[in-house]
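Dear colleague,

Following up on Tuesday's group meeting, I ran the structure prediction for the two-component complex that the binding team flagged. I've pasted the input sequences exactly as they went in, so you can double-check that nothing got truncated or mislabelled along the way. The structure tokens for the whole assembly follow below. Feel free to forward this to whoever is handling the docking comparison.

Inputs:
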Amino acid sequence: MITRAPAPEGHPFDEVLSGWLFREAETRAVEADSFQNPGMLEVERAAEIWSTPEGTAGKSCETCHGDVSESMKGVGAHYPKWDKDANRPINIELQIDKCRTEQMGAEPYKFDAKDQKAMTALIKNQSLGEPMSVDLSQGDMQSWWDRGKDTYYTRTGQLNLSCSNCHEDSMGNMIRADHLSQGQVNGFPTYRLKQSALVSLHNRFRGCIRDTRAEFPKAFSDELMALEVYVTWRGTGLSVETPAVRQ
Amino acid sequence: AVTFAGTANAADTAPNDVAFNEMQVSESLTGMPGDPAAGADAFKNRKLGNCLACHTTTAMESELFHGNVGPDLDGAGSRWTEAQLRAIVVDAKQVFGPDSRMPGFYSLHVGKNVAEKFHGKTILSAQDVENIVAFLVTLKDE
């Protein structure tokens, strides 16, 4: 697992650090052992969904993609990707919905449906260990990166704090009981022990924004998709750790 | 007296009327001295100051989970005058500059998209600020 990597050019840090490094020893151990990692139960459950037909076309993911461990190997490490049809970047959640609606005749998942989180974790888990990168040369990815960067440095809410105030300026400090990490995305969806459930990335983004006492944008909105593009870039070179384990 | 965060009292100085002079606010916001014991409570209460999210101080040793985003506050009552401490709590950016990470606790200079239920409200009431300032004044060097 690459938990430290040299930062890409133009990054505020010299080194990018996985959130894993900031967690307690027990939490780290649970994540690193796939037999103990409770998130793996959801990944296994998703492997069944993978081969279960759904929707009017009578197809399953397996019908088209075959063995998930072969067809999806390394795929999740390079999202968000430019989507020509939508003319915007999409993440794994939206790619799954795309296949469900366009290929299977099934409904898109509701945001944060249990199966959406599990399927996303299944796809990302096929990139376990693979270094993350996003291709900013596709479509308009660069302007989405710019927009995400703007959001990252914008102070929000009554507490008047930006992502950078916590994850860049205060990285390594304690904020109450929490050890502030770089706020990297490489472990998502993560398994939260406190909630006994997977937590999606956009849920986490919204939680951090809400904590500044601000209104938070809709999941998969342009604003949060741009943020996902930018924050994923901030973790370039870190191994995918999905499902990472958090307190 | 019972106080509610963010509710204004007619006699209180309104947030936009607080007079900063050379990084000091000399007048009590309520016209009355604060109560240090009530201030210690508001200091640690997560729904009020939640100052422990970012600060340690020996006076709060028995509390769990102190943050260290900001400096340790031991001796703050010796380093700063009461008028300076009031300025810091009311709007830290007036003292430390616009890049400070410390929120303004009695200020309407806030970030974007403030949640509806906090619109036009300050984090603390004038009374809470006075109480917290009275508590900070007690944090003297040995």
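The mean pLDDT of chain B is 93.

Cheers,
M.
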